[in-house]
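To whoever is on call:

I kicked off a structure prediction for a single chain this morning and the downstream step that reads the tokens threw a length-mismatch warning. I double-checked the sequence; it's 984 residues and nothing unusual in it as far as I can see. Pasting both halves so you can look.
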Amino acid sequence: MTFGEVVHYVTQPTGWPEPVRGIASLLSPFHCPDSPSNDSEHLANSYTAKDFQVLIQSTAAGLSALAELPHYGGERSTVPLWSQLLHSLSNTLSPDVMILEDASFIMPRAQNVASQPLNLIDGRATLLAAHAIFSAPRTHSNTSRTSSRNEEDEDESMHSADSDSSDGSIESLDLPLQAHMLSGRGRRLSAVVPVLLVADSHNIVPLICSTLYQRRVWGIRQPVVGLCCSSTGTIATAIFGWLDPDQSEEGHMPAAHLALAADIGLDSYMGVFDFTDTCSAINLAQFILGLRTHFEDIKGSMSIEAVDSLTPLHWRSDLHDFETQSGGPLDERVASWTHQVHVETSSSEASSSSSPRTPPLLSDTALVSYETMSSPLLATIVEDEQVHGANIRAPQEARAINVKGRGPQPSSSKRSSKRTSPTPRSLSEVRTSTSSRAPSPYPNSQFAALSDTGLDDSMTLSNWLFERNAFTVGRIPVQSEELAKKTGINTMVELYDKITEFSWSDDIRTILSNAKVDRFVSGIRTDLCTMNGGPNCQSTLNDVPSLEDVEFISSKFSVLLHAVTGARQCDDIAQLQGANEADRRHEWDALLFNFFQPVPSQRDVLLERQLNLACNLAADDASFVSRAHKVTQEYGDLCVQQERCVPSTRETSSSWEQAAAARDQANQSSDDIKRRLLMGNFAEVIADHSSKDPVTGKCDAILVVPCSGVATTMTQRISSVEEKDTFLKSFMLVQGPKPDKPDTSTGETPHQIETPYGHRQKTTSGRSLQVPSSSRISESKKPNRNQLHNPFLHHPDRNQVTQTQEAILSMDAPCDEPSQQNLLLPVLLAEYKKKDKSAISTSMNQMKTYLVSSVTFLSKLGIVDKPVFGLIVNGTLGAVTMAWMTNKQIYVMERNIRHYDIRDPLQALQFVSILPRLARHGLDLCRLLEKQLEIIDVKELQSKPWSKLAQRQEDKRLAAAQQTRSEEAVAQDLGSDGAEPERI
């Protein structure tokens, strides 16, 4: 598919086409950004590349180190490192600049409209620096605006934002849809016009074209400036765009022209920059800083009156000529869409805040956007694993197999409670029976979003934990020595504090005051070092972090301060416009990348990786039913002890409330298990759960320590290559990321352009831009589970946190090949969510599945009584949790844990001070594994697998064996009567 763009390939710095020659002159290293001479405020905020030199050098060093590391099944994303630099540079373009990350935009119409698929309407921009016109005067501070949202369904986001300006009384902007290029329809309270565009080679061409057409609607004649940056590479290529000056003929789009360097060699004069080369990155910074005048020109050209006076330009791919291509009257299409929305929302598990997405006007009800309209679960990240067959939330009797000659079998939950002599079956019998049906598993993100009703018969997170010998606890030591030894709780609380405690000191102030930081963030450093000298900054009497760790942090202190700046600006715009799932994740990723280094220059931070989840132990344990009630009673004793050990003070009231909620939940769990035993359907319930358990989960980020050559050593005794691959896929915790797939419904691949042999070329479909990428009880008695599973409810150092934190607290499936050589030990897993209280329980549930699976994996390697940590992010807040296994029981610490708001430089410092300690903890795990290698029996690991994937494979084998036996039995019965055998 082509958009009719004309590409101009430039071979020398003086060869840029006339329409973009002026803007291209900014590529010259001799160009100096314009500095206002009379405005002292603007002079103070006029920056050069030297003012970002520390960040530039840190970015170059980080990307260079990242390139040296193995991929472990998939290329590493470089976006968190170079996007922070582009983000910070773009912030200087204007006091009113709005920065959007991972933004969804509307693609332009294809040159041949009939060839454009109706369901291919969206693209993705990595970063947009834009100017926005709002429908009402802003009431918040006039600072740079940042957002990671996609501006999808802006009306919904506005209503959900924490801003008085979105009360519904503001009139919408009276603009046609053609004046907007970001995805979404409905009520618009702002119009965004991008100035600097950053995208990968799949999206940069349609992004530039859409921006050009949008500017034509606004009457803006300035050229478009884009940067093509690979998500896994280190090269940025400048591309300039403009439209033919003449008005297009009726029914035809004006031709879009693109100009870029013809030679893919690195040359900053030609707009090809390398982030890993400091000099090249400095030239890129100078180029972006030189766009300030360009930004002001576009800002001054924006006029709603101009939109009204110009001839309409129907450029959007989601707004075809409905008079000739609608396929039916408008009222019929509206009725069809309304029916589709009813069907989708009725069968979805989306929360009440998730509204249906608007499809293109001409879209058939079976065709939706390939990316942004694919799921009603807008509050969760949809997993790659698919749910096949019927609706996973349909009643069980509707999913029962209708065997020939029999009707659907009733669900176990629908059986009569008046049975006088229940005849429970063994787990093995029920599992074999259930395996024959083999229902599809839940995707982990959808499973985590289900309501947790405790240990009743339904699919709940509590059941998932219980069936894996896992329970949640608080960060509360107990007085009983016997209980402490049995659970390891006191030892783990002590270890957690050792990892997370922080004590401010004069030595820290001195080190950070002398650290070299960029002028752009020097004011934040001053605030940190001058306001944190009082006793309230002490969270412990211990000398933590060590001065060695502080020296390490100071070497990258500018990166931390830039992350603080980005988090503040993101939060500011999120309050006005709302935020999406990826909100602020780049700030968190940048902190993890830069401050977790188990060994010098090593950054083992993997993003968006699939994890094998733990199998259902109860489904394979014949003794589980008989001891289930005792297990819940013992857990209840632990919860009672923890509740009694919480001091009765005003400061600990939130902690006590959570402990009391946990006590009530434990009592309810014991009653639920007793009731299930009396019903006699225990085995059936467990088997049903096991058949629907999620198999894998996608973790947003995972910090690992690689143990070199361990995987090779473990598999030496496996002779078969196929058997070895099967073992690695089902045994290793961390798997490779899913590869990107083309749109199978259309056969289209993302639009790209390729380097030609000539100077000027009109692109054709299927060609690509070859740019370099690298050098990336009763209702009143039921426990309050929202309160119970909220790690942000109480902070153990509440009196020591800043005023900013106080304000925040008051806010109402196999994958790619894993590594064949190294074994990756998990240290910390991260789950990101936007600032949304309703998403906290979902992210916490996902984290529990990751942590339980991680410690189960470690136990199979002989590593027990050692924790794995978790980071649950809710906007700018991040809570650090942990899990461990002791005496074959898993405990997840989710209450009374420390959390940090990275908008506050002190709390950001406290958070990153944890990462060097976690790195040392990871190295300790690696040393433990080395001692266990001699006694690890791979054959035993194969015979007793830990992952759900292996258990699922065994279920399928059992189902196939049972099917074979059934067919043989039927054949024998029919054969004895002389009848023709019939397959079932």
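Update from on-call: the warning came from a stale cache, not from the record. Cleared it. Sanity check on the structure: The longest strand covers residues 122-134.
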